[in-house]
Amino acid sequence: MCKLHVVATPEKNARALAGFIARWAGQAIADRGRFTIALSGGSTPRRVYEILAGPPYASQARWDRWHVFWGDERCVPPEDPSSNYRLAKEALLDSVPVPPSQVHRMRGEEPPEEAAERYEAELAGVLGDGTPELDLVLLGIGDDGHTASLFPGSAALEERRRHVVATRTRHLGTYRLTFTLPLINAARAVAFLASDGSKAEAVRKSIEPRAGETAAPAGLVKPASGALHWFLTTDAAQQLSRVTA
Ligand code: 6PG
Fold first, then answer.
1. SS3 call for 230
2. Per DSSP, what are the bridge partners of residue 176?
3. Distance from the CA of 194 to the center of ligand 1, in angstroms?
4. DSSP class per residue in 140-183
5. Each residue of 2-57: pLDDT tens digit?
6. Does pTM top 0.85 for this prediction?
């Protein structure tokens, strides 16, 4: 079961997700003393991060209890304009006091397979052995239905043992690091963000797949016991049959 949050504009959508993250973080810290989150990349979440970096969250959140991870990263140096780390650093982490030792950057500048194995070890070091259970994984969705860097037809999408793998994007020919479905689906909560009408079909295929359709990668995100939330604008949700505002 997934919870749909549908609002009229991208700004309202960013504010809704920022508020959810802040509340979820507060609950995690109350329950377990810390909050472990995997940020998503792409362009849509920038505004969410900017809102979290401003009032009231900047002064209210217990940033010293946050552990920040990334659900995927482009295999580029951290200062590269396409780096997901750089996006979050500029929009959020440079403005809030998350201890540097609790900012767990995927090393996009290292050989991809080594960086993937290193990140799996880093996750285990913080979250323990077995399948790490993050408090929250943020995800975007591409118009082809990809999420994180799990692209349709990729071996990464089929991976059921590893938690982090290197993958080569066919359409771009570039390498990325990505969480796999077993890791994403172990999270206590997953929150998708889509604020553009170009994602409407991918959103519908993910939430309301039709018989005979190839499952969209985002539609394979089904947390085993965690909560699944979709934060959508009305145009991103326009092809859904059930839209609870
Ligand atoms: C990435 C993301 C990717 C992204 C979607 C949506 O590294 O690009 O992890 O999955 O969330 O492609 O991107 P936009 O927000 O830019 O539409």
1. strand
2. 74, 167
3. 10
4. ---TTS-BTTB-TT-HHHH--S-SEEEEE-TTT--EEEEE-HHH
5. 999 999 999 999 999 999 999 999 999 999 999 999 999 999 999 999 999 999 99
6. yes
Residues 162, 143: Cα–Cα separation, whole Å: 26
Q: Where are the domains of the chain?
A: 3-219
Q: List, as one string, the DSSP characters of 31-61.
A: HHS-EEEEE--SSTTHHHHHHHTSTTHHHHS
Ligand 1 binding pocket, CB closer than 6 Å? 40-44, 72, 84, 140-142, 146-149
Start-to-end Cα distance in the chain: 16
What is the Å distance from ligand 1's center to 75 Cα? 14
Three-state SS for 186? coil
Structure confidence by residue, pLDDT tens digits, 152-195: 999 999 999 999 999 999 877 899 999 999 999 999 999 999 99
| Alpha-carbon gap, residue 28 to 35, rounded angstroms | 5
Give the span between the Cα atoms of 90 and 165, in whole angstroms: 26
* 118 secondary structure, DSSP code: H
| C-alpha 119 to ligand 1 mean position (Å) | 20
Say whether the peptide bond before residue 209 is cis (omega within 30 degrees of 0).
no
Residue owning tokens 């504010």: 15
Domain 3-219 falls in which CATH fold?
A: Rossmann fold (3.40.50)
Pocket test for ligand 1, best of 69, 84, 87, 147 (most atoms within 8 A of CB): 147
In terms of C-beta density within 10 A (0-12 exposed, 13-18 middle, 19 or more buried), how is residue 160 classed? exposed
179 neighbors 106 (Cβ within 8 angstroms): no
